[in-house]
């Protein structure tokens, strides 16, 4: 992925993959924000859930279970930011709540199997 970072002039900031939910308070705040947004906008999310909404919200708020596309979409909408997710093969998944508005762009690197705990995201920042 280093070539992909360099091509986009991005640098990686690693995020701990082990038990992050119980050790970093800002992470809990972000999980809470995603859960609250999904809970307040159920029609946007329930068609994509394989379990009851209340149980899904509970897991986001109270466990360290991996977050994915739904949580990123909720956060992009809640904070009015665009999130670009760089995949290992170079593809970029764009999550933009309002394509017509100029919003801050955040970058994440997505690792499908790069960590012992499975899927993982790291933050990307402008290099240099």
TrEMBL record:
GO BP annotation list: protein deubiquitination
Source organism, top-level taxon: Eukaryota
Entries under InterPro entries matching the protein: OTU2-like_OTU, OTU_dom, Papain-like_cys_pep_sf, Peptidase_C85-like
Pfam family, one: OTU
Stored Gene3D superfamilies: 3.90.70.80
GO molecular function, one term: cysteine-type deubiquitinase activity
Transmembrane segments: none
Domain named OTU: residues: 10-127
Name of the protein: OTU domain-containing protein
């Amino acid at each position: 992925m280093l070539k992909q970072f360099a091509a986009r002039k991005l640098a990686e900031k690693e995020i701990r993959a082990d038990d992050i939910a119980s050790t970093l308070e800002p992470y809990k705040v972000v999980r809470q924000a995603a859960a609250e947004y999904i809970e307040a906008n159920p029609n946007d999310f329930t068609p994509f859930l394989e379990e009851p909404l209340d149980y899904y919200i509970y897991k986001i708020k109270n466990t360290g279970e991996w977050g994915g596309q739904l949580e990123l979409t909720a956060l992009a909408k809640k904070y009015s930011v665009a999130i670009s997710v760089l995949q290992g093969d170079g593809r970029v998944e764009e999550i933009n709540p309002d394509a017509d508005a100029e919003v801050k762009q955040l970058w994440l690197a997505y690792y499908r199997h790069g960590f012992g705990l499975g899927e993982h995201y790291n933050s990307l920042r402008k290099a240099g």
